[in-house]
Amino acid sequence: MKTLPLLCAALVGLALTGMTTMAAELKAGDSAPNFKLQASDGKTYSLADFKGKQAVVIAWFPKAFTGGCTIECKAMRADGAAIRKFDVAYFTASVDPVDGEKGNAAFAKSLELDYPILSDPKKETAKAFGVLNEKGMSSRWTYYIGKDGKILHVDKTVKPASHATDIAAKLKELGVAAK
């Protein structure tokens, strides 16, 4: 019976050790993690492709073909002109696969989107950005990344129905150059 408390203490110690090695939450001023992800438009995008050239917005959403995500993506299509007034590349992103009946390519096509959805089925980029939640999906967070690759802002209170206009307002507030 003496081994049980020792075993429990060892497990607690291991858990605490693991907690100290977790990545710190990304915030404004941090370097954004680089990524290389396939998108719904058949292309592969990397943050490095935009460094020194253009700001980037990545709007993570939980799951393709679900209510809130459909509303968000439709709003970004309907009001995308407000975002396109700025010198910015913008994407939505999820951990769904790009291909397949429930993949992001099919989702984008069903909504007639005019911007790409990034797919991260291995969940490595979602983990690097800190958006992977306990359900194994990405949280509905939006990252604003400057031309220098530094995070300008993280929005964790996304409103799906007004997301495009909210993004445009934040780009203006952050001083991202207009086209």
Structure overview:
- It is a single chain.
- This protein is α/β, with parallel strands linked by helices.
- It has a single domain (25-174), classed as Glutaredoxin (3-Layer(aba) Sandwich).
- The protein has six helices and seven strands.
- Strands 2-1-5-4-3-6-7 form a seven-stranded mixed β-sheet, with helices on one face.
- It starts with a helix and ends in a 5-residue tail after the last helix.
Question: What brief labels describe this structure?
Answer:
single chain, about 180 residues, alpha/beta, seven-stranded mixed beta sheet
The name of the CATH superfamily reads Glutaredoxin
**CATH class category name:** Alpha Beta
Whole-angstrom Rg: 18 Å
Gap between N and C termini, in Å? 71 Å
Name given to the CATH architecture:
3-Layer(aba) Sandwich
The number of helical runs is: 6
Residue ranges: pLDDT <50 for 5 or more in a row?
3-23
Short structural description:
The chain is α/β, with parallel strands linked by helices and about 180 residues long. The chain has helices at about 5-20, 65-80, 80-85, 105-110, 125-130, 165-175, and strands at about 35-40, 45, 55-60, 90-95, 115-120, 140-145, 150-155.
What topology emerges from the helices and strands here?
Blueprint: H1 3-20, E1 36-39, E2 44-46, E3 55-60, H2 67-78, H3 80-84, E4 88-94, H4 104-110, E5 117-119, H5 124-129, E6 142-145, E7 151-155, H6 163-174
Parallel strand pairs: 3-4, 4-5
Antiparallel strand pairs: 1-2, 1-5, 3-6, 6-7
